[in-house]
Amino acid sequence: MDSMERRGQDEPDTKTDQNNPQAAEAVAADPAHEAGRWAELIAPRYLATTLMLCMGVALFAFNGFLVTTVLPTAVADIGGGALLSWSLTLYLVASIAAGASAALLKARYGARTVLVAAALVFLAGTLIAAFAGSMSQVLVGRVAQGLGEGVVAALCYALIPDMFPSRLVPKVFGAEATVWAVASFGGPVGAGYITETVSWRAAFLVNAPLIAIFLALALVIAPSKTSKATAEAVPLPRLIVLSLGLLSMLIASLAENFLSASIGVLAAMLLVLTSFRLDRNAANGLLPKQAFSRGSTLGLGLWVVLLMPLAQATSSVYLVFSLQHLFGYGPTAAGALGAVMAMSWSLVAIAIANLHSLSARRVAIRLGPVLQVVGIGLLMLAIAGGRIELVIIGQIVIGAAFGASWGYLSQMLMDVAPDHERDKTSALLPTLQSAGFALGAAVAGLAANSAGFATATGPDAVRGALTVTFALPLAWAIPAVLAARKAIAMAPPPWQVR
User: Fold this and answer.
1) How far apart are CA 97 and CA 101, in angstroms?
2) Backbone phi, then psi, for 95, in 5-degree steps?
3) What would the 3-class secondary structure string for 454-479 be?
4) 208: number of CA atoms within 13 Å, CB side?
5) Which of 135, 146, 145 is nearest to 71 (CA)?
6) Residue environment code for 267-283, b if the CB has 16+ CB neighbours within 10 A, otherwise e
7) What's the pLDDT tens digit per position in 206-251?
8) Which among 154, 226, 304, 332 is least surrounded, fewest beta carbons within 10 Å?
């Protein structure tokens, strides 16, 4: 479908001209730019595209919840319990490294070719894991899954501004948030049921029909256009250095003593910073030139994209454990309470996707990190005082934080990125989100063990260690508040505060 290769052919171009404030103001005042209807996502023109992008997110979301549920049973069958944590570690490293290269692959080979290849790699990884005879073979499959999913997730973000007009972008993020909510409940329940009634191998194979549907849609819908003028070979040395840095950070989270963990974190920071410096000096880098700059909306916005998941990672690692061991809930109830955040995220994202005013969208971007600070504070008080009602309220508030800001923040970053770096910016968003969760989990583990979690022998000792651990995310969430405010203040028209 070549007609799908141009964003909204009969729609006005909503990419703002940052050098023409008058034109930007005209675009901002245009109702077509501000308004969009949910029904348009399922209208004939956009239905297949919406399905393709949501299927890409579904692969990423459902597989994550599925694997977490299935692997303990797989270990009981084929052994290799000592390697269990490496299943997530190697997957994350592969996913982040692959996602970082997605924009360059798209420019060189076209989105259609890259998406099909990535989906096939993910399918191969799924089959390897499903028919594995040992945990080491499962790990090979998980690496392949990470490589495939990293690219699919990144390109599904990069294609949003290519294939939808700006007025529908918040609706697309709302639809994808709904997919995450369904996955957060349906993934564990479905995987657990299949594992119990059939086998853990069958649960892995649930991915196969999802991949088949995504492949069929990508072959028809995804654009095949390349950008030979800016395309270059994937910079393997930079990716290797980045991967080693991420691997060091994740290994540090598994260390049994503080000294080993600290050395791992320092080595990781050195390697990651080295990869960023190499990339900044490259002619055609993996990251936008203004990435993480404190003097631009793009750089500050990307800090928010990193810091909010980094702060959220502590809950991802320790909340369900806390609900079981400090509040006395069983696995099912604890898992359901842990999923409240995802449900709140989805409901709020859907509710505010109808905001027409750019001033209201700017408020939503600024409000998100503020709500996260409040939610983290509530969780810390809940753990310290054993109050389950604060856990629930805190989860709802944190979900609202992501739901309020994530879609409009992503849209703003896509809008303010230079045209030649829009793909890099869009593809970086899910990759940076994964990196934030991975780095946050490692730091949370280091903080917990430093606070005595690993050696705690009673509920009071565990509560004390986890209270300290749940306070740490404030160190990342508060800077996110400041970065979001400054990003909005520095934004070009029409996103700037007037």
Assistant:
1) 7
2) -65, -45
3) CCCCCHHHHHHHHHHHHHCCHHHHHH
4) 12
5) 135
6) bbeebbeebbebbeeee
7) 889 999 999 999 999 998 887 655 555 667 788 888 888 888 877 7
8) 332
